[in-house]
């Protein structure tokens, strides 16, 4: 069996910067309140009718990753696209990437695991490569949240948190089993599905027909709902557990971590984990301050920026970890 390794990274975010002060002009909130609770100072929101769609941003990130990987687009054997905000209800954006990049008729898989989506997508790609089925896989995490948020005081608890953007990675075979992705670890707990949820449109409860029939301006089912305190309490526990699970699988202690890149859900969660694992500021990478929570895109954006800034070097032990809606969570242990 092979290992898989990341050989190319890229990211893209919209040019439009929305600060906390900007939000205070359209809802009852302020910079101090947002920073105190989330650590976020600003985020990127795509402009209406721009090219910054979920697939469009993913394509831009993918082009950078492909170029940096030093491969041709036709060397890609498979595409995995993680998102909760596809351009269309179906089909998913994986096929849009295949078409836009003019890649031969390879398979395209869409992953719907929200905040842990990129972790799940990496795990799928890793297993395909390890079994020898594919050699080069394009993995994308991309989100366009801003067009679906309740940008009023009613929705401020959620809308101030989320931003738009995309990240991409190229995975390929690594014959040295001591290098590359060493292991991935995935979990779920569906009993808490409705603690972080977008109900409509959904076939089970409220579909488009129901929304149009009722025409109720007070219907909140088509806006995201989050039980913030409950999510936070579960996140800090599951983050710690799944990181330790990954380290234990590879006979590593917490002192082995050279770089931890957590899902950028809330800076307070990252700081809690950093303190618990006794990591320095140089061992944890956070960029939620300037991008907000970009869900499936947050880890690939952060991973790309950390690599670009020289914070990840060959031989480093890099840990990726995420927790989110589902609840789902997971980790990836990499020997860079």
Automatic annotation (TrEMBL):
Residue ranges annotated for the Beta-ketoacyl-[acyl-carrier-protein] synthase III N-terminal domain, each copy included: 109-190
Compartment annotation: Cytoplasm
BP terms from Gene Ontology: fatty acid biosynthetic process; secondary metabolite biosynthetic process
UniProt keyword Repeat, yes or no: no
Pathway: Lipid metabolism; fatty acid biosynthesis
Active site residues per record: 115, 263, 293
One annotated GO molecular function: beta-ketoacyl-acyl-carrier-protein synthase III activity
Matches recorded under SUPFAM superfamilies: Thiolase-like (SSF53901)
Gene3D superfamilies noted in UniProt: 3.40.47.10
EC number per UniProt: 2.3.1.180
Pfam families with a match to the protein in the record: ACP_syn_III, ACP_syn_III_C
Keywords recorded for this protein, A-Z: Acyltransferase, Cytoplasm, Fatty acid biosynthesis, Fatty acid metabolism, Lipid biosynthesis, Lipid metabolism, Multifunctional enzyme, Transferase
Known partners and oligomeric status: Homodimer.
Family statement: Belongs to the thiolase-like superfamily. FabH family.
Function: Catalyzes the condensation reaction of fatty acid synthesis by the addition to an acyl acceptor of two carbons from malonyl-ACP. Catalyzes the first condensation reaction which initiates fatty acid synthesis and may therefore play a role in governing the total rate of fatty acid production. Possesses both acetoacetyl-ACP synthase and acetyl transacylase activities. Its substrate specificity determines the biosynthesis of branched-chain and/or straight-chain of fatty acids.
Domain comment (free text): The last Arg residue of the ACP-binding site is essential for the weak association between ACP/AcpP and FabH.
Identification of the protein by name: Beta-ketoacyl-[acyl-carrier-protein] synthase III
Species whose genome carries this gene: Gelidibacter maritimus
